[in-house]
Every structure is written in C-alpha cells, then in structure tokens.
Amino acid sequence: MKLIEQVRRRTPLGWLQLSHEKGRLLVALSGIAFADVLMFMQLGFQNALFESNTIIHRSMQADMFVISPKARNLAKYV
After folding, report:
1. Contacts of 18 (CB under 8 A, 6+ apart)
2. Where are the alpha helices (DSSP H) in the chain?
3. 3: helix, coil or strand?
4. What CA–CA distance (Å, rounded) separates 57 from 23?
5. Element holding 68 (H helix, E strand)
6. Are the CB atoms for 66 and 47 separated by under 8 Å?
C-alpha cells in the first residue's frame, strides 16, 4: 500500500506535461492512432497480396512442377 501512495505523491514530469494541455494530448493521441491504423492497413494489404499470389500453388497437389523459365507467373497457365 505504501508503494502505491508514494507513486501517487510523486507525479512523473512526463504526465504533468501531457495533462497540462488537454488539446495537445488529444492531438498527439489521435496522431498515434492514425499511424497505427495506417500500419495495420499496410499489414493487411501485404497479407492479402501474399495470399492471392500463393493460393494457386497451395491448391495444387504434386511433388514437382516443370515451368518454362520465360513464364512470368503461374496464373496465366491455369
């Protein structure tokens, strides 16, 4: 119990700076949230691109395939 009371008595300088100007805190938090949304969107697009490019290869049941070295992708041959 004493530890919690000691922490409450000595407020960190960072929290004092953030809580002094509420508008600045909200702008900073919204900027961080926007950056997080962009990162998760990028990860989703990357995962979708990988899945769409490998679905044909995963659906084939074989041990070995022979493909022409001039072939750019497998999708135009299926």
Report:
1. 24, 25, 28
2. 2-9, 13-20, 22-59
3. helix
4. 52
5. none
6. no
Q: How far apart are CA 59 and CA 6, in angstroms?
A: 61
CB atoms under 10 Å from CB of 74, counted, come to 13
Q: Which residues contact 41 (CB under 8 A, 6 or more apart)?
A: none
Q: Over the stretch 5-62, which tens digit does the pLDDT of each residue have?
A: 777 677 678 778 878 888 988 998 999 999 999 999 999 999 999 888 788 778 888 8
Which pair of structure tokens corresponds to residue 2?
């004493």
The closest alpha carbon to 58, from 40, 78, 42, 44, belongs to: 78
Residue spans per domain, the chain: 2-59
Q: State both tokens at 24.
A: 């600045």
